[in-house]
DNA sequence: ATGGTTGCGCTGCAA
């Protein structure tokens, strides 16, 4: 069995202490981070190693984006893809000894206006997700797990108000349509919703709320998917909402899943 | 209808 977590950390250097706390208290076998906002050589790997996470694959750039996969178990191969040719560090993949492939994705947020004619970033987001669809269609993934900050909340109960967010980037019908097409192309199962099928579920709360916890205007932007051949081995999904209330928090909470493999 | 916060890195941009 192994446990995996995904967390948009919003600067891995500023929040090195929070990552350490999560690794100590929750001890997942694998932790996938997004928005590291750091060149790879400045990621605090020494701390990871001291806590038993001796293996890492990462892609980085100064100030923006950045993804990393930390592991207690050996990583036998690594890969990456520059989706939508943005030149951003938004994807990294790792193959584990048991053959399971882990994809860590940071899909573009997409700006404020949900119209690619006036907002180039929105078009880039749709193109990014379309390329995910095409890649999975051409090369069907097997024994694979894909996690990350997808920046899309697909279900009505993935947002605090479906009606109020229909025109807000992250929950527009066209984004949801694109994400579901990518999911379908790879026969991906939404593991979090397989385990927690009912009810409101969020992984992100804006910094701008006066009291994020009381207002609870969240969205489920962070996801764990698995291919059908291993999705039935998944159980025990949860979102560590508490971490959103830690000192100087990320605006995202970590999402967990365990697999009997 | 609007403004609200944070991180990076140095002026505003991205989220």
From TrEMBL:
Alphabetized UniProt keyword annotations: Hydrolase, Magnesium, Manganese, Metal-binding
Xref: PROSITE patterns: AP_NUCLEASE_F1_1, AP_NUCLEASE_F1_4
Site entry (Important for catalytic activity), positions: 222
Gene Ontology terms describing biological process: DNA repair
PANTHER family: EXODEOXYRIBONUCLEASE III (PTHR43250:SF2)
NCBIfam families cross-referenced by the UniProt entry: xth
Protein name per UniProt: Exodeoxyribonuclease-3
